[in-house]
Every structure is written in C-alpha cells, then in structure tokens.
Design goal:
It is built from eight helices and twelve strands. It is an alpha/beta fold. It has two domains: about 35-130, Ubiquitin-like (UB roll) (Roll), CATH 3.10.20; about 145-275, Cytidine Deaminase, domain 2, CATH 3.40.140.10. α1 (about 60-70) crosses α6, α6 packs parallel to α7 (about 220-230) and α7 (about 220-230) runs parallel beside α8 (about 245-255).
Length: about 280
Amino acid sequence: MNAGEVFFAPEGASRLPAACWVDGRLEAATEVVADEVPVALVYNGISHAVMLASPQDLEDFAVGFSLGERIVRHARDIHDLDVEETCNGIAIEMRIASGALVRLKESRRARTGKTGCGLCGVESLAWFEDDAFDPPLASATPVVFEHAALHRAMAAMAARQQLHHATGAVHAAGWADRDGSLLCVREDVGRHNALDKLVGALVAAQVDSAAGFAVVTSRASFEMVQKAARAAFPLLAAISAPTALAVKLAEQAGLTLAGFVRGGRHVLYTHPQRLARMPV
C-alpha cells in the first residue's frame, strides 16, 4: 500500500483534497498527509523552545526532550506537565525543580536557543567542547547483542509505523530488548522528536533503556547520537548512514553505533565489543 492509499487518517494525519497525475491525466483525489504543528515547551512559565512536531505522544516528547537537552537530569524533576491546545499550536507547560530551573536560566544566558539541528543558537564553539559530551557509558556493560537482533528489530519497525504507512512522511524510533524483540515505537515528522518520544515512553513505562538498544529509521546525526548516549542506550542502530561527527561522539561516549542496518548487512562504526563475535 502506497502512502495516501488509506480510507482513514490515523492520529497525527489529516485527509486533504489533491490532484493526482495518473496515466496521462489529472484526477481528483484525497490524500492522507502528516500533521505538523508548532509545539512550545514552557518551563515554569518560561518559553524555552518551539519545535515542529507530530501532535501525538506529546507527554512522552516533553519528558524525552527535557532529558535529552539536559534541562532536567531526572524525570522526577518534572513536577507537573500539561498539554494545552492554543489557536497557534500546542503549548506544553511544565513545572520543574528549582535546581533545574536555575540551570535552564544559566543556559539561556549562554545561548539564544537550540533547535532540532543540534547546534543552532550556540553562541561560541566553547559550548561544543564543554557541554556536548557527557561522561561515557560504562564500558563494562554486560549486555552483548547478536548481530541478527539488529535486523530483527529493524524488520519489525515496518509493521509498527502506522503513521508512516498512511503518509510516507514520518520517522520512527524504537526500543528492542536483547533478542531484538521490538517493544516500543514512537513516530514523528522529525527524527529527533521521534527519539525524544521514545525516551519519554520508556521513562513512563519504567523500562531500563540500557537493557536493550534503540533503532531509528533515519541517519545517525550528531544529535541523534547525543540523545541516545544521554538516554543510556548502549547501542544505536540506524537504517541509514552516520555523520563523521556522530561517529566521533559515539566513540567518546562509549556508544556502539551501527549504520546501514538493512538487507542483512550493517556497519559497526564504534565499540563493536557489544556485538557477539562471529566465527571466522
């Protein structure tokens, strides 16, 4: 089934009139199109960022974003969370702990803002060295994955992407256990948002993210690796390529980074010790 060839619009999509060129003629059609709305993240009355996102699973998004951006260090630092629709979009109002609010205000003084591209709004290269790299993940993690687990999880992603099947316009991020069984998936028009939603969902379900690995239907950019490392995923498997900067960060963070996970093949860029050694 091609994108748009559905009789209903799932959550996060709308049915819109369109014109389709088929076999040399133009025909009236109705297409299912992914929704994309501005979402404001507000902390203790301070509007910190406005992201363009899919409008579902926004509680998960708010928690995952707050953790991934180091606005809070623990989910328990978020005391209240309300999602409110406005005439211009959606506002997520959060009340955070006083210590987290102090860090947020200090961060805002240091930079004008930060968006999904990872470094937008950073005022100097000093931030890149001082703030981008967290302490590395424990190198002695007991979890070792089979190579086939990566492909088992990636193959299972297709059946769990309802919004993508309907629209062809969104990314997904999933969490799989040690055997590659896919247990949680989140979708969004933004690949970073999908990963934030996944992190938030795992926190809500009290899942130990370090007991499995993350799978994403996108490239592995710097910020995707940064979010994965901060969420304590030991391994990030991407269907597409990483960037050189992402590989550098994954190496320093102690994260196993796998790219091009498709068609029975994958490339390991960092920390291959987390994958079972195959006989030569």
